[in-house]
Amino acid sequence: MGFFDNHGLSYRQKKALESERTTDLLGIEQAEKEAKIPEVENQKILRRSVEYGLEAAPSIGDRTISTFTREPRPAYAGIPTFLRSPFLEDVRRVGEYDVAFIGVPFDIGTTYRAGARFGPEAMRRISKLYTSYSYEKGVDLAESLNMCDVGDVFTIANIEKSFDQIYKAVSHVFAQGTLPVMLGGDHAIGYPCVRAIADVLGEKVGIIHMDRHLDLQETDMDERMHTTPWFHATNIPNAPPENLVQVGIGGWQVPRESVQNVRKLNTTAISIFDIERLGVEKVAEIALEKAWQGGAKAVYLSVDIDSFDAGFVPGTGWPEPGGFLPREGLKFLDLVAREGICGMELVEVSPPYDVSDQTALLGTRCIADVLASMVDAGKLGKKFT
Ligand SMILES: [Mn+2]
């Protein structure tokens, strides 16, 4: 008998006895979850593409391929709508959908780099890289949601008139019971978007706002620029400042007037150091507690892409180092979305300053993840069933 007999079972033998341990892995769990997701809608899309786009040339073995692309393949082909959702030409029919993507090509509220008017276009284009299925979430959006892209709001070269247009567009979609998802656009749009939702809802709405900046000034350069939306949004009687939570704040671009308004208005500002100190889960818990307090009926989600560390988002109006890392930010969004939101905006993607579309891609990712988290948590599905 050698000394090794006292060492018990070898590593591999032990692992064989504990084979069920692999199910502790989320990666394996999600692979198993995939088996339960139907493929009905995806099959319909393929069949329709062959019908409308004609059968492929005889030499092509895969008969799901069509002559003209009418489905999400190849990624480099096709006319981009957001996440390949059908373009809804007749917006009077928006109530037939669970989710509507609304482009808001507006950047005259910017105080440094402009370019966010091209944000919707860039996010639509890069969103072609995404299938409808997310591995981590175990959700296939095509199977769970009816989504449409209603195109862009007709914005005008005038801030206040554009606000009126955005207000009308978001009100129309939200009043039909469809989740409005705004592709910004600079952050000034936050005010008309919240005003629309608060007016249609008629009950208290909370706001969760991810940003490096407070955006709480009354005016900037005498106008309601992208540094002002939350001052005006929290003036709406049923969107009170006590229910505004601002997460990720910090750095050298926060005007002192905004900071003074945190105290005056009694909003909740959560610094990026709080994320570091308390962790994402705890911060999300605090944010949800504050946003939903006092009988809030719904929570609106505003995501400024500059809340992420500037290294990940070069294509934005006011980049600031030290923000959320992508995995932290996405985790925070997951925790917020699971409780349900009534609308979302993704703002400040400025393609002229972007590198390899990475800012637009992260913006797209935030939106897709929020939708999948809501579906997974049962907060969104074929017309809320
Ligand atoms: Mn910002």
From TrEMBL:
Keywords tagged on the record: Hydrolase, Metal-binding
UniProt keyword Transmembrane present: no
Keyword flag Ubl conjugation: no
Family classification: Belongs to the arginase family. Agmatinase subfamily.
Name the UniProt record assigns to this protein: Agmatinase family protein
